[in-house]
Amino acid sequence: MNSVTKSLNNGSGIRKQRNGITGSSLKIIAIISMLIDHSAAVIIDRIFIMKGLDKIDQSDLQLLGDFIGENFGLILSYGLMRLIGRLAFPIFCFLLIEGFIYTSNRLKYAIRLAIFALISEFPFDLAFYGSFNNNHQNVFFTLLIGLLVMQGFYLIKEKVINKKWLPFMATAGAMAAGFAITYFFMNIISFIYTIIRGEEAHNWLKVYLIISIIVGLIMLVVYIIMIKKNSLEVSSVRFADLLVLVAGMALAQVLRTDYSAFGVLTIAIMYGYRKSHIKSMLAGCITLTIMTFVEAVTFFNLLFIRAYNGKRGLSLKYIFYLFYPAHLLLLYAICYFVNLL
Asked: How many helices (H) and strands (E) does the chain have?
């Protein structure tokens, strides 16, 4: 068995024993939240289309106002259901991290996520798009990439920390961070560029590469400063972690997984604060809210996490795995039989 497999199979941790909400209770809360959210996204969305919302010119305020007036109750229900649905993803991220820490076999955990990601993809496409669609992948892929990123952090800390080539990996991490930061701030950069030059850039790839290299060099300077303040070993581990994180975020962005790069970033940040459940969830909520302000609803999860007792609770190991594709197929079937497709 190689070192990677051994490390994947290495799970450890001691759970606190006290009264409160168990892991299975958190999972049920997330599942119910997800079902409410997807019911709105799949069924009510199609009702809006059936009522002709997609044919209304969004600049025609009169028609848009009439549609809102006629369907106010349905629109309100849709909005509330989607808000409730925001609670699910941070809880699944939290449970993923708990599973990563306490599982006795991380390799099997990763394989299980991969299998159900593949199984769930067609039901996911049917429910949301009515047919196969490769432009949006289900959340299992995001969770799987998040798990691999956490494993990458573990390997760097436990297996790579004494390697002579760690500083080279850290240097690559600094440059990779430059590309990632530039990518996520391209809209702002584009706006500033247009103001300064008085015109839009004709070759964005060239502009992107130049700015990415500059930001990467700045990150490299930060790395050097950290070495002087801390140590080569500690600083190199942190910037090598950046390389793993950026790789995971890039993969999620390319695959267009649910929550994409920000989903992977959320998992990584929550993992960084894993020693405190409250801080972990708080960090995740802040990250998601930066992505989209509507995700501010996720802060309600702090109430659940505060009551979390660290116990597993009921044996619901495969409930989420099976429920996810099953509920998507059910929602699709409902749309099919009531002629919403």
From this structure: 16, 0
* Cα distances (angstroms) measured from residue 218 to each of 107, 182, 205, 225: 37, 12, 20, 11
CA distance 74 to 128: 19
Residue whose C-alpha is closest to residue 174's, from 112, 219, 142, 109: 219
Cα dihedral 339, 88, 140, 295 sign: positive
Can you give the pLDDT of all 341 residues of the chain as single tens digits? 454 455 555 544 444 456 789 999 999 999 999 999 999 999 999 999 999 888 888 777 888 888 889 999 999 999 999 999 999 999 999 999 999 999 989 999 999 999 999 999 999 999 999 998 889 999 999 999 999 999 999 999 998 888 888 999 999 999 999 999 988 887 666 666 566 655 555 666 777 888 899 999 999 999 999 998 888 898 999 999 999 999 999 999 999 999 999 999 999 999 999 999 999 999 999 999 998 999 999 999 999 999 999 898 887 778 889 999 999 999 999 999 998 98
Residue 117's φ and ψ, nearest 5 degrees, are -65, -45
Contact (Cβ atoms closer than 8 angstroms) between residue 277 and residue 305: yes
Query: Which residue is associated with the tokens 């490299």?
Result: 220
Measured distance CA(97)–CA(78) in Å, rounded: 31
- Ranges of beta strands (E only) in the chain are none
Model-wide pTM > 0.85: yes
CB atoms within 10 A of CB 157: 12
Residue 91 in contact with residue 303, Cβ under 8 Å? no
Residue with tokens 């080539």: 165
Closest by CA to 39, choosing from 301, 333, 250, is 333
